[in-house]
Each structure stands twice: as C-alpha cells, then as structure tokens.
Amino acid sequence: MSISSGATPALGHSLDISSTQPTPFLRLVRTELRKTWDTRAGFWLLLSTAILTGLVMVIQLWVVLVQDLEVSYNDFLTSTNFSIALLLPVIGILLLTSEWSQRTAMVTFSLEPRRPLVIAAKLVVGIALAVAAVVIALVLATVCNLLYGAMSGSEVEWDLSVLQTLSFVLLQVIGMLTGFAFAALLLSSPAAIVLYMVYSFVLPSIFGIGAALIGWFEDLQPWIDFNDAQTPLIDATMTGEDWAQFAVSGFIWLVIPLAIGLWRVLRAEVK
Amino acid sequence: MITVEGLTRKYGSFTAVDNVSFVCQPGRVTGFLGPNGAGKTTTMRVMVGLTPPTAGRVTIGGHLYSDIPNPGRHVGVLLDASAQHAGRTGREILELGARTMGLPSSRVDEMLELVSLTPVEAKRRLRNYSLGMKQRLGIAHALLGDPSVLILDEPANGLDPAGIRWMRGLLKGYAERGGTVLLSSHLLHEVEQIADEMILIGNGRIVAQGDKKSLLANAGDSVAASFVTALDNERLAQALQAKGITVAKAGEGLRVEAETVEVGRTALESGAVLTDLRSAEGRLEDLFLELTAETQREAV
User: Fold this and answer.
1) What's this model's pTM, rounded to 2 decimal places?
2) Hey, which residues 113-152 in chain B have their CB within 8 Å of chain A?
3) CATH number given to B2-211
C-alpha cells in the first residue's frame, strides 16, 4: 500500500486529543502478559516451570511407589517447593528487569507515560501467573495422587482444605511478589536473582546461626525472618502471633523494597 | 507542532541542554543538527517524558506529552532503534505496539510493507537484524498509530544510500500532508537534503536556526561560491573575469566566487551554454563546523 492511505497526518498547530480514549488498563495487562511468552527465553521459562513441576511430582511418585511409602495429596503439593517456589520469583524478576536489560522500557513508557499503570499491569500479570501455576500444581497433584492410589493399592488420601489451598496460593503469590520487589529495587536481572537466592537460601541459615548463638537475636529473628514467617503457611497453621510476625517481616522484605523500587522506577530517567 | 520553551537539563554540574527554545512547524521537516553529545537526544527524550527537565518545558500540539491519552496515536517516536528485545521478532515488536495502542494486526502488515520489510524478514528475531533493518522497523513502529507528529533520533543512521533516499521521500511526503517532523542527525548532508528548517545545537545550546538560505545569509562575510561547467569553459571564465570575479579550474568545470545567479547572468550575456551550475557545497558544512567548533574542541 502507499503511505497516503496509511499515514495521513492531521493539519493544524494544536493536537485534538478530545476523541482519544486513554489506554484501558486491561489492554495494558494483556500486552504485559503477551510479553512474558513472546520471546523464546520467556516461553521456555514458563513452559519449563510447568514441566519441572510435573517432573518433580513424577519422581516423587516413583520413589514413593518403589519404597512403598504412604503419601497424601498434600505431600505431592509440597513438592512444588522445588519447582514453582523456585521459578515463580524468577518470572517475577524478569517481568520487570527485562524492560531494563533489553531497554524496552523506553518504548513501553513512551507508549504509556502513566508509569504506575504499567507497573500495576505487570503486577497483575505476575499474580495471575502465580495463580495459574497453583492451578497447574493442583491438577498435577490430583493426577499423581490418583495414580498413586491406582498403582499402590493404598487408600487415596485427599487432605487438602480450602484454607490450605488459599495458603498455598498466598505462598506462591508472595514468592512472586518478593522477586518483583527485589527486581524493582535493583532493576537488573542477575543482581535481583542473586539477591533472591541469597535471601531464600543463605539468609535463613545465617538467621539460624545468629539465633542459636546470640540470645537477644533469638527473640528478634521471628520478626525479621520472612522465610521463617511463611513456614506455618505451608500447612496452614497460622496463629495470631504468626500473622503478626508475617506482617512485620513481610513489611521489611516485601513492602520496603517494593516501595523504594517503585519510587525509583516512577522517577527514573529511562535510558 | 512541537514547542520547546527554555528547556534546561542538568546532570550534577554538567549542563546537557542549556535554555533551549525552538518550534517545529506542521508541514515542515525540521532537522536537529549537532555533533555527538550536543544535547539532541536529551532534548528529544524530554519531549516524550522519558527524562524530566531541570527547567522549561516541551509541548506537542499544546499538550505536555504525559497529558496526551494513548500518545502513540498522536506522536510517533523513534529514539533508539536498538532499544527493543533482541529475542522478539520484528513482527512481534510491531504487534506489541499495535496492541498497546488498540490497533488491529492488519496495521502491522501495512507498516511492514511500508518500510519494505518482507514477511520472512519480519519473522526473524531482532538480534539478527542489521542496523538498517532496525531503523526501518523503528520507523514502522513510529508510524503505527498514524500520528501527526514524528520525533526521530538519528533515523538515517545505518541506512544505505537507497534507504536514506527512501526515508527522505517518506518524510517529505508526510510533512507535505501536514505532519510535523523532527529528526536529528550529526551528519549535515543527511539533514541538508531533507529538512526545510534546521536547528543547529552545540554544547547544549542552539547556535543557529532557520532554513538553509537564511542560515547562509546569516553566516555573514563568508564568500558565496558556485561550481559551473559550460560547453566552452574558457569563454565563460573570460566573461566572469572581465567582471572582476575570481575563477579557478575545478575538475571538469570552474569554481567561481559568486552566487549562482551572477554566474547564470554572465553565461547568458556571454552566450556560453551551461551544462551544470550549482552552489558550492561545503559552505553549510563550514558554517556547521564553525558554529559548533567550540563544542568539538571541548569534547576532545
């Protein structure tokens, strides 16, 4: 086609914006969701998260059958600590940092200057992916539990309450959000991933050693160790004090980095 | 129309853009010319809200960029053709833009055709694109939303001669239909042939602005010169020298220290048949170097 039919600029010195609708939020969310799988790297990260989830459960099922152990539905689900819980934060990190490492933030923010909406859209996508991961995990665990029942001849145990399911969802969403917060704080994929790994694998042992050696630290630790504070969520045994510790440590590890990071993203000069 | 008013951007003690004001009129291509690091890119980034100004402001059609709803539909922006995800295909990059703006996928095909990227090329990932292909894709991205204002930073960079000619035609046609075009370059000859209006920037300051003619007129005492070739160079040279005009042999023709109009008149009077007559190139370049000389020395 010729450009005359494609690009006919309006005449005049002022821009008539009265008939232009602002970009709807849902459209931003859909675009951000598309960005998570439209590159080879993104696509395989999502797919391998699902594949790994299945693989870990299959291995678990196989070991259980070989060793003639007794397992329940919930046991299959907790195996996702080695799959979803590991990779969801990475997805959360890349949601944000890839815009910086690939410099696409320039395009994204010139097409939508309302940066808080773009970040909010990314957050919605992150939460949606976490929920989708949980749904996949629930389905896979169901299949594995049925297979276990059929192949071992033992009685199949469905020991998952609504409360536990919700706790499980919350746990995964928090993992995703922690990654997202670290990403906003550092705006660099490798730095944010390293920080997340230190936070989830190195920090708990340091906290543990500190609590064992230093008296006063033992009292402090539950209030500042966000990993530890989430443990009762796994089997949905949160008490009032647990929730308080969860809130305080979550404020330190989730809210503060997210707030500083967002403040930075919203003000940053985008290069 | 783009209006830049008293724009200043400082980075610590360094002033990247220093009290810059200019206007880009609709229906015209405005060339933004200056050596590397003169402040062109910073000015353009402030225009689209990616860099906050220290002082001053930029309005596009009377609005701040951040106040324009769905700005891609009004202002086409190309700041850096390489600032796209290397793992995305060319088509997908346009698709994301089209979806953000709420445009149908057919618009993507139209733009790919407009910038002559074949369907096979469009399926390749950006990391496999040459700079010229990235520029074409970037121009397609800027034109996606059918905007009335175009802001292009170094769009000719990496284009081959045929590509530059193509872009020149595209932007001229766009301006003729009433669009506002601002394009930057550090190469004079790129801008000279395409821009109706030129803004010369050096060291963060505007050093000159106007169309080519008025820029040269303001250049003051530098002597006008022409290149001329006639069937009988000897005869023309004698006629010019008779008027006291300095003539020198240059290649196949002559270099004359006079305006083309004076050479033409002399040729008519003397009956010499001209085969070529043009203003001596390089004067604008001299002007450009002269005006930005201070910046260039300091930058070294």
Assistant:
1) 0.84
2) 113-114, 125, 141, 143, 146-149
3) 3.40.50.300
